[in-house]
Amino acid sequence: MLEPVFFAHADALVRNDSDALMEVAARFEEGGYMLLAAEAAAESGNRALFGRLMGYCEGARTPALALMTATPLTRREREIAVLAARGLTNKEIASSLVISARTVDNHLSNAYAKLGIATRGELALILSDDNR
Fold first, then answer.
1. For residue 132, what pLDDT band results from cuts at 50, 70 and 90?
2. What does the pLDDT read at residue 126?
3. How large is the C-alpha radius of gyration of the chain?
4. Burial category of 44 from C-beta neighbours within 10 Å (exposed 0-12, middle 13-18, buried 19 and up)
5. Residues 84, 55 share a domain
6. Res. 60: pLDDT tops 50
7. Do 83 and 59 belong together in one domain?
8. What is the mean pLDDT of the chain?
9. Rounded-to-integer distance, Cα 32 and Cα 105, Å
């Protein structure tokens, strides 16, 4: 039954309660309602949770999701992220850009944090959405 979750969602929004919104996101996720879960996560401000849940939403766009605007990547972070999303290893990226693999790792870590993601698969999804 979704009515109690919808009520909890509305109540958490009215109270601007981030913790309650994260709980609502978890309840929607448990029920398999990933887009609703991602919206609640966006409204909570939890970038990591939002990024994980958006991986299930195939590039969906809603007003609630627009609330969670990612911090823009620097030119170098984006350049490295694109190469990583294409499947290049850190070592291959470092070699092609004439930088150290550690520098590549640092740029990717920064990009992941800004985007609220944790994997190259999520990175590929986000970057493919940007290119539509």
1. very low
2. 76
3. 17
4. buried
5. no
6. yes
7. no
8. 88
9. 34
27 DSSP 8-state letter = H
Final residue of a structural domain among 66, 92, 121:
66
Separation of alpha carbons 23 and 42, rounded Å: 12
What confidence tens digit (pLDDT) does each residue in 10-46 have? 999 999 999 999 999 999 999 999 999 999 999 998 8
pTM above 0.85, yes or no: no
Q: Using alpha carbons, select from 55, 31, 51 the residue that is nearest to residue 41.
A: 51
Same domain, 81 and 115: yes
The residue among 31, 47, 66 that closes a domain is 66
Based on the structure, what is the number of domains in the chain?
2
Q: Domain range for residue 109? A: 75-130
